[in-house]
Amino acid sequence: MGPPAFVCRGRPRVPCCSGTEGVTAGHHDAFKTHGVERVLVAYDRDPAGDRAADTLAKTLMAEGVECFRVVFPRGADAN
């Protein structure tokens, strides 16, 4: 398995998560440690991805992180 699609296209500061529940406490700690102010959520465009993106955005916004959704065509993802 190679690097994520965003990294291959020149976006090296892209943390990966394993699935829609894959953003961990470690991710949140790293965001705080590195002063992350904005996150672009790029989950699959399916019902599970839509729900997870909404949940993650609410959590991050409560932590003071601005969130935006990368909207792929229905059924599509970054890869």
Compute the separation of the termini in Å. 12 Å
H/E series, N to C? Answer: HHEHE
Given helix and strand content, the structural type is alpha+beta
| Biggest sheet architecture | 2 strands, parallel
Plain-language structure description:
The chain has 79 residues and is an alpha+beta fold. The protein contains three helices and two strands. A two-stranded parallel ribbon has the order 1-2. β1 (38-41), α3 (47-62) and β2 (66-69) form a beta-alpha-beta unit. The radius of gyration is 12 Å and the shape is globular. The mean pLDDT is 84.
Question: Summed up, what is this model?
Answer:
With 79 residues, the protein is an alpha+beta fold. It has 3 helices and 2 strands.
Question: What tags apply to this protein structure?
Answer:
two-stranded parallel ribbon; alpha+beta; 79 residues; 3 helices; 2 strands
Task: Please outline the helices and strands.
Blueprint: H1 5-8, H2 25-33, E1 38-41, H3 47-62, E2 66-69
